[in-house]
């Protein structure tokens, strides 16, 4: 047995989730390389131009992809706990509801729904309580940003009722 290695790690298969992450990182790096390659001649007289930082980011992402793939094949990632799907569905559902309702219902109601569904995803079962609390908090946030700071946030029926 090799020093520092557990016998089960020698027979462990490559980590498929980590390999998928490596592929996604490499794809993002490739997309950045492709997009930046269309900006030819933008540097002008200087060696540093608008393509320098995106190329550096793409190189770093590609390096991370290679590193992640190597670690996945070596089996060095720790075993992950079982993921609960229901909380993720509640939170993603809240995000989707907010995006769909933002222009129709306004910031306070749409973001209040996001608040309530996220609270549900984190284990708060009383939607009848978290929904009005979320809407009230989001209304205060809307007043601060839209009326005091004069930033543009979508107004809905609740906001129009008061302003």
Automatic annotation (TrEMBL):
Superkingdom of the organism of origin: Bacteria
TM annotation in the entry: 17-36, 48-70, 90-117, 129-153
Keyword Cell division among UniProt keywords: no
Limits of the DUF1468 domain: 20-154
Keyword Transmembrane in annotation: yes
InterPro entries xref list: DUF1468
Record's keyword terms, sorted: Membrane, Plasmid, Transmembrane, Transmembrane helix
One Pfam family of this chain: TctB
Name of the protein in its database record: Tripartite tricarboxylate transporter TctB family protein
């Amino acid at each position: 047995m090799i020093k520092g290695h557990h016998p089960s790690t020698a027979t462990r298969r490559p980590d498929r989730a980590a390999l998928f992450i490596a592929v996604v990182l490499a794809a993002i790096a490739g997309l950045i390389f492709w997009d930046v390659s269309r900006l030819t001649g933008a540097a002008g007289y200087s060696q540093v131009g608008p393509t320098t930082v995106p190329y550096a980011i793409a190189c770093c992402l590609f390096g991370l992809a290679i590193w992640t793939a190597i670690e996945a094949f070596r089996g060095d990632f720790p075993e992950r706990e079982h993921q609960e799907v229901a909380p993720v569905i509640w939170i993603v559902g809240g995000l989707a509801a907010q995006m769909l309702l933002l222009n129709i219902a306004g910031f306070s109601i749409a973001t209040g729904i996001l608040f309530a569904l996220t609270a549900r995803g984190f284990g708060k079962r009383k939607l009848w309580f978290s929904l009005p609390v979320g809407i009230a908090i989001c209304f205060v946030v809307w007043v601060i940003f839209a009326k005091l700071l004069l930033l543009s946030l979508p107004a809905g029926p609740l906001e129009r009722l008061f302003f």
